[in-house]
Amino acid sequence: MILTDIHTHNNVTDERRIAIVNCGENSINGCKYASVGLHPWMINNYWEECMQRIATAATKEQVRAIGECGIDLVKGCADEKLQETILRLHIELSESLQKPLILHIVKGQQSIMRLRKEHSPTQPWIIHGFRGKAQQAHQYLDAGFYLSFGRLFNSKALAETPIDRLFIESDDSDVPLIYIYETIAKTIGIGIEELAEKMMLNSQHCKLLP
Ligand SMILES: [Zn+2]
Q1: Distance between Cα 186 and ligand 1 center (Å)
Q2: Alpha carbon of 195 to those of 82, 93, 132, 183, 201: distances in Å?
Q3: Taking Cα atoms as reference points, which of 196, 208, 191, 206 lies closest to residue 3?
Q4: For residues 21 and 9, what is the distance between their CA atoms, to the nearest angstrom?
Q5: Ligand 1 midpoint to CA 85 (Å)
Q6: Which of 100, 188, 184 is nearest to 150 (CA)?
Q7: pLDDT tens profile 15-59
Q8: Residue 141, C-beta contacts closer than 8 angstroms, at least 6 positions apart
Q9: Start-to-end Cα distance in the chain
Q10: Whole-number mean pLDDT of the chain?
Q11: Of the four listed, 2, 16, 132, 135, which is most buried by Cβ atoms within 10 Å?
Q12: Looking at beta carbons, which pairs linking 80-83 to residues 24 or more positions away fall under 8 Å?
């Protein structure tokens, strides 16, 4: 059984896990599969240079997704306008390179919904670390987003997410991935092997994995 982890900050080798490692634009060479992006917490005065490096790194084959990027109105390091400008650059990269977008959204749901309507993206948009309630999950799902769940989540929201729109991630948690899979399998009421298979299929369907 292979466990798929679509978003992690830990580049640990484990032959039972296939992971998309969120890398700095300079550190992707050490990762088998990576995502690159400018996190809203990391925005500083040099964001334009940073975005140029990200655009170059993003063309590499092992980069499977753009992000994490997004809008964080609680801990983001720039005002909302600049966060949105930077997010738009990620959206353009995602569309031009045909790679999915991994999104970090905190209190930015209205903005991301508006951006999705505006862009009608061809690429999957995945809300990572989703911890919202069922109602919010439905709003995202109805708009076409995918939801990625990790160690902490709302059980009802998880149970009501269709399995073909679901992903699993460890993010920065040091809890073993198998534990996250076990908890999620129990909550949605399927076996862990079946869950692992579905997550692999979803990742391949969205071209997160070859
Ligand atoms: Zn993360």
Answers
A1: 24
A2: 39, 31, 21, 11, 10
A3: 196
A4: 6
A5: 20
A6: 184
A7: 899 999 998 766 778 889 999 999 999 999 999 999 999 999 999
A8: 147, 161, 162, 165
A9: 17
A10: 95
A11: 132
A12: 80/108, 80/111, 82/43, 82/47, 83/40, 83/43, 83/108
Give exposure, 74-100, as e/b (b: 16+ Cβ within 10 Å). Answer: eebebeeeebbebbebbbebbbeeebb
For the segment 171-198, what is each residue's pLDDT rounded down to a tens digit? 999 899 999 999 999 999 999 999 999 9
For the chain, list the domains and their CATH numbers. Answer: 3-205 (3.20.20.140)
DSSP strand pairing (3-8 vs 166-168):
unpaired
Numbers of helices and strands, H then E, in the chain: 7, 8
Q: How many CB atoms lie within 10 A of CB 27?
A: 13
CA 102 to ligand 1 center in whole angstroms? 9
> Which residues have their alpha-adjacent CB atom under 5 A from ion ligand 1?
171
Report whether pLDDT(2) > 90: yes
